[in-house]
Amino acid sequence: MTAYDVRDLMKTPSGQPGPARRLSPAAERAAAEDVTPALSPVVLSGIVRAIEFLLVMATGYAVHFTYLGINDLGTGYVGGILIVGGLTTLVFQALGLYGIGTLRQVIPQLVRVVGGWTMVFCMALAMLFFAKIGDAFSRVWLLGWFVGGGMCLVAARAVVTIQVRRLAKAGRLDRRTAIVGGGEAGETFLKALDGEDHHGLHICGIFDDRDDERSPERVAGYPKLGTVDDLVEFARRTKVDLIVFTLPISAESRILQMLRKLWVLPTDIRLSAHTSRLRLRPRAYSYLGNVPVLDVFDRPIADWDVVAKWVFDKVVGTLLLILVSPILVATAIAVKLDSPGPVFFRQRRYGFNNELIEVFKFRSMYADKSDATASKLVTKGDPRVTRVGRFIRKTSIDELPQLFNVVFKGDLSLVGPRPHAVHAKAESRLYDEVVDGYFARHKVKPGITGWAQINGWRGETDTEEKIQKRVEHDLFYIENWSVLFDLYIVVATPFALLKTESAY
User: Fold this and answer.
1) Confidence grade of residue 1 (pLDDT, cut at 50, 70, 90)
2) What is the DSSP letter of 273?
3) Which end of the chain is less congested by CB atoms within 10 angstroms, N or C?
4) Which contiguous run of DSSP H or E holds residue 223?
């Protein structure tokens, strides 16, 4: 989805939390089910690639050390081992050996592994022949590597298959999916999925705004759980990885109306194309099993991006925590000496997918005047703020304890939309009342600093324009996230803190 499209959706009302919406008994039961932590199939496939690449190289070195010894390992052998390792990954990818469906098979998979490994060695031997460097390599080493490597690959694949089957049986590889649209189109889609052996979806239920014969209470054995508004609440209460529209593409106005409610959720959204008469090129589609779908929205940070951001948060967060530890100790002493009360102030704020989290800050107000819900914004010269509090708020030192949230609790990131208190207001109106689509900023984990903060939109949000600008910057960050973007924001944050005009 482009930034322009997101701004268009912001102009219209979208799903807001507000008071908890009552769900149907069936939806309540589905939302109360225990959800097994899922593993990303993309990450799992990547791990298998890495293991096999390292296994091929390790086997090559092991055979060399066993037969030729460590002293005869020259650059030719090192280069050859690297090339064969890379070729193995490429050939196995071309043979489709990293798909989750393939990893669950036994005989067909192992036959392709042996065939692929043989193909790799044929390609390697052909390169040696045409480069006229065959005499530089031991034939016994090549034969030993071919046999030993093949045996290791087959053994490793057998272990991987056992583990993947175990994970699949436990539901660790399934994407929890909600279907929007019942009736004939929904039934056709669900029956097409049921005909697949390994589609990797766990269907939670069906949601449809229609309440007549076109949308019965059960479709292809799956229950109707409620309306699209109910789906927003349902996705807040339980994990939903994917939303699939089974409505015909021609129902454009209905689809757009529903998207305006659902785009704020941190889920992938797809449009089923199995009944469409529109025939696009195969690459235009993605597939659920063998059922074609069109991508509408993607989760902003998923698969390897989640891993990269987690590593960034833990590594950089730990380094920063060590770096600022003298400041933390000095500030804690100053807060304690300045006024009676606890050193830290805990406040409940909105986190990822509107989950309530508790963030740590240094206490900057008098203990008996603290405002845990932020029902009244802090203003210039606010009598509730202590002497030390004025300094640490202006310099944002009061935010440093949130590094504990990042490193130890994991409910904050270093970079992301700043978490707001649950009752924060701009011009006496709650933030979600001011900005349509406000809760789309919760599609990712909130952060200590963010794109809005380094662009001057930090501190008091006393006007509607300020919160509007902050949300616009947050959405820009979400749509354009990268590790380098995070690193840039972290480096730029200290310079942005020098501007203290709006921080009280």
Assistant:
1) very low
2) -
3) N
4) strand 222-226
Query: Is 150 inside a domain boundary?
Result: yes
B/e letters for 266-299, b = 16+ CB within 10 Å, e = fewer, are bbbbbbbbbeeeeeeeeeebeebbebbbbebbeb
Question: Locate tokens 């090559």: which residue?
Answer: 60
- Contacts of residue 454, defined as CB under 8 A and 6 or more positions apart, other chains included, come to 489, 492, 493, 495, 496
* Nearest C-alpha neighbor of 174 from the set 189, 185, 164, 182: 164
- Statement to judge: residues 313 and 430 lie in one domain: yes
Domain of 150 in residue numbering reads as 41-169
Q: Which has the closest alpha carbon to 299: 449, 446, 478?
A: 478
Token look-up 């659920």 returns 288
Mean pLDDT rounded to a whole number for the chain: 86
Domain final residue pick, 244, 269, 297: 297
Q: Within 13 Å of residue 149, how many CA atoms lie on the same side as its CB?
A: 31
pLDDT score of 36 more than 90? no
CA 210 → CA 180, 214, 216, 224, 254, distances in Å?
A: 11, 7, 9, 11, 11
- Say how many C-beta atoms besides its own lie within 10 A of residue 398's C-beta: 24
- Whether the Cβ atoms of residue 308 and residue 483 lie closer than 8 Å to each other: yes
* CB 400 within 8 Å of CB 322: no
Average pLDDT over residues 247-253: 78
The per-residue b/e assignment along 77-107, b for 16 or more CB within 10 angstroms, e otherwise, is: beebbeebbebbbebbeeeebbebbbbbbee
> Residues with Cβ < 8 Å from 15, sequence gap 6 or more?
229, 232, 261, 262, 264, 265, 439
Q: Report whether 10 contacts 261 (CB < 8 A).
A: no
Measured distance CA(145)–CA(63) in Å, rounded: 6
pLDDT digits over 66-125, tens only? 887 766 677 788 899 999 999 999 999 999 999 988 999 999 999 999 999 999 999 999
Do 54 and 18 share a domain, yes or no?
no
Is the predicted pLDDT of residue 225 greater than 50, yes or no? yes
Written as six digits, the tokens of 99 are 């798909």
Helix (DSSP H) and strand (DSSP E) numbers for the chain: 18, 14
Same-domain pairing of 467 and 330 = yes
Do 443 and 331 lie in a common domain? Answer: yes
* CA atoms of 308 and 301, how far apart (whole Å): 10
Q: Closest by alpha carbon to 438, among 32, 21, 9, 4?
A: 9
With 80 as the cut, is the pLDDT of residue 372 above it?
no
Paired tokens of 261: 């409610």
For position 478, what pLDDT does the model report?
A: 94
Cα separation of 230 and 207, whole Å? 8
User: Which residue blocks in 95-227 are alpha helix, DSSP H?
Assistant: 100-103, 107-130, 139-169, 183-194
| Average pLDDT of the segment spanning 172-198 | 85
Lowest mean pLDDT among 8-22, 50-64, 413-427: 8-22
